[in-house]
């Protein structure tokens, strides 16, 4: 039996009819950019998440950058980020001209708020928690810290669309939140896409300008922006998929329950929510595994695709090494990165496939 990490072709087979209808509907109207469909998606996202405003963009990375820009964060400012994340988290901070301050994480792989407090200087403008793998960071503690030190909270909620913490959606706790609609996310388009959520009219208006070159009208630009307009076809597809998002998340949670039940062995540990979130999105199923690299190779030999997400913490990349304190400075993040393995996990995975993956993992450790 072959088990791919994700199977987007299987998803296409399930949704073929509706996806083709979305594409045909948009092409027949001929309005492919900044259309009514994008406005409708933004309204649907606000209704679903409870966010006051939403702006459709080209990617989650753009949503992070525009959130920082729109809040006036740039040169001379510091932004605290966890060292466990995708590279876009630090990239967004550096691209707006600010300085990242790398923070260690807890066992749940999310930002260690006590550690973050020690990083605050008079230059710190914002804290940018990441809800890693769709597990919500401790937003109560983060909001409290931000309030005590007058920091902005910009959430990297790229992986947590559809999660809940104390009944509230990740991405709506701070002044702005960034959602990714990349194909590997739970709410995805046909390629790249992103959404910026915000609670203020000022950030909303600015974000709409930034995504369209800074223009307020066809012939009037007030600031310099970029081209980060969400395509209409993507908006229509995301709108359609939003209706099935809760089902996707609940299937992913079922997968995780089965994995945990079957993989009850000492060599594998599962990170759990440290703050007791109501719904984690389970965008990825990342475990900590003894002899990780050998296990990954063994699984590959059995046609099971497991991936290292990620082997390098943000402060130890070639591009970032001079921005932080180097190897050994963030021990929990570094230890976690040496053990993490993401197992195949998506809404089209069958229980037979999960059984097969688990029995091969057990076979590996028995050898
Ligand atoms: C935690 C995190 N931040 C930011 C991003 C960037 O999102 P995008 O790929 O849509 O630009 C991602 C996407 O992979 C992510 O996982």
Question: Would you kindly provide a written description of the structure presented here, covering whatever features stand out?
Answer:
With 367 residues, the protein is α/β, with parallel strands linked by helices. The protein has two domains: 8-242, Type I PLP-dependent aspartate aminotransferase-like (Major domain) (Aspartate Aminotransferase, domain 2, 3-Layer(aba) Sandwich); 245-366, Aspartate Aminotransferase, domain 1. The chain has twelve helices and twelve strands. It has a seven-stranded mixed β-sheet with strand order 1-7-6-5-4-2-3, with helices on both faces. α2 (36-49) runs parallel beside α8 (232-242) and α3 runs parallel beside α4 (88-95). The longest helix has 22 residues, at 8-29. The two termini are 21 Å apart. The structure holds pyridoxal-5'-phosphate. Residues 59-61, 85-86, 88-89, 130, 156, 158-159, 180, 182, 192, 194 line the site of pyridoxal-5'-phosphate. Pyridoxal-5'-phosphate binds at residues 59-61, 85-86, 88-89, 130, 156, 158-159, 180, 182, 192, 194.
């Amino acid at each position: 039996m072959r088990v791919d990490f994700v199977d987007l072709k299987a998803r296409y087979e399930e949704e073929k009819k509706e996806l083709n209808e979305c594409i045909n509907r948009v092409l027949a109207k001929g309005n492919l950019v900044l259309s009514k469909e994008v406005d409708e998606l933004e309204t649907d996202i606000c209704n679903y998440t409870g966010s006051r405003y939403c702006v459709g963009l080209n990617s989650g990375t753009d949503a992070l950058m525009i959130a920082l820009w729109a809040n006036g964060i740039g040169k001379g400012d510091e932004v605290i980020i966890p060292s466990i994340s995708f590279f876009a988290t630090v990239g967004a901070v550096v691209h707006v001209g600010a300085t990242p301050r790398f923070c260690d994480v807890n066992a749940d792989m999310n930002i260690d708020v006590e550690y973050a407090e020690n990083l605050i200087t008079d230059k710190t403008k914002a804290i940018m928690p990441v809800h890693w793998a769709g597990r919500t960071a401790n937003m109560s503690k983060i909001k409290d810290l931000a309030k005590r030190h007058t920091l902005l909270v910009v959430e990297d909620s790229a992986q947590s669309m559809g999660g809940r913490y104390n009944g509230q959606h990740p991405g709506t706790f701070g002044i702005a939140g960034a959602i990714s609609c990349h194909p590997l996310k739970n709410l995805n388009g046909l390629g790249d896409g992103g959404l910026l959520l915000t609670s203020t009219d000022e950030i909303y208006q600015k974000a709409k300008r930034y995504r369209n070159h800074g223009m307020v009208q066809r012939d009037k630009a007030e600031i310099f922006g970029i081209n980060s307009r969400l395509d209409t076809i993507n908006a229509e597809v995301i709108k359609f998929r939003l209706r099935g998002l809760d089902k996707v998340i609940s299937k992913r949670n079922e997968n995780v329950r089965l994995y945990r039940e079957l993989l009850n062995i000492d060599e594998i540990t599962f990170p759990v929510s440290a703050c007791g979130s109501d719904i984690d999105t389970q965008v990825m199923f990342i475990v900590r595994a003894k002899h990780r690299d050998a296990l990954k190779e063994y699984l590959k030999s059995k046609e099971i695709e497991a991936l290292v997400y990620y082997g390098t913490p943000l402060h130890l990349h070639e591009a970032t090494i001079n921005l932080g304190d180097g190897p050994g400075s963030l021990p929990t993040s570094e230890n976690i990165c040496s053990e993490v393995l993401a197992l195949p996990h998506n809404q089209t995975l069958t229980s037979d496939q999960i059984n097969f993956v688990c029995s091969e993992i057990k076979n590996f450790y028995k050898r």
